[in-house]
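Thread: Newbie trying to understand structure tokens

Hi all, I'm a second-year student working on a class project, and my supervisor (Dr. K.) asked me to get a predicted structure for one chain before our next meeting. I've only ever worked with sequences, so writing a 3D structure as a token string is new to me. If someone could post the tokens and maybe explain what I'm looking at, I'd be very grateful. Here's the chain:
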Amino acid sequence: MTTALIFAGGTGRRMNSRSKPKQFLEMHGKPIIIYTLEYFEYHDDVDTIVVVCIREWIDELKGLLKRFGISKVSRIVPGGETGHDSIYCGLKSMKDICKKDDIVLIHDGVRPLITKQLITQNIEAAKKYGNAITSETARESIVRSTDGEIICEVPPRSQMYTAKAPQTFYYGKILDLYERAKRDGKKSIDSAHLCNLYGEAMHIVVSTPNNIKITEPADYYIYRALYEAMEGQQIFGL
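---
Reply by user tm_fold:
Sure, no problem. This is what the structure looks like when written as tokens:
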């Protein structure tokens, strides 16, 4: 079985949106979280979806799922204090529906510009290599600093990538890593970072273009422009 774990537990402090969390902001009458969920809803290889959501917005999400015909969501789980905690909450809730060798795609609810092909590549790579980390080649030079003032390293750009999502794993393995982190008192930025903390080898799946995460106000307007450009290509054959 293949499960999509969508975490949408963030409050969106950097969006300056006082009325709604960022994942519930709408574009053309449809919330960002629904745009994201639709890719997994309509993918033949995804069997079920688990969503981690802000507790106070769970009822709102349930109504949206019904309104937009999202039927694969099998449960909605309250999120934690951090993204790490939210993913762990979701993984724990899946113990009764997932086997150790099932595939789980972990994806941001505010990353709606993925594709069917990217999901397929993640599933295939995870089955072959044990995991799949969607990554994008660096477009500019990356510098490293330990104190935020002095640059101590400029790695070759050809070797640098940005971790994106989905990040895909065998369920038993990724759950074990999160449980180890809990015992050790560790927190991670994302699942790829967690794998690195415990020395796990990771396999790259090259990201599709414009796989942005909507975090700040500018991201929303970039997303809207990109979405409308893609719509124009379909309509006008540009």
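A couple of things are worth pointing out once you decode it. The beta strands are 2-8, 26-27, 30-31, 48-53, 73-78, 103-108, 131-137, 161-170, 204-206. The helical segments are 32-41, 58-67, 83-93, 116-129, 171-184, 191-197, 217-236. Feel free to ask follow-ups in this thread.
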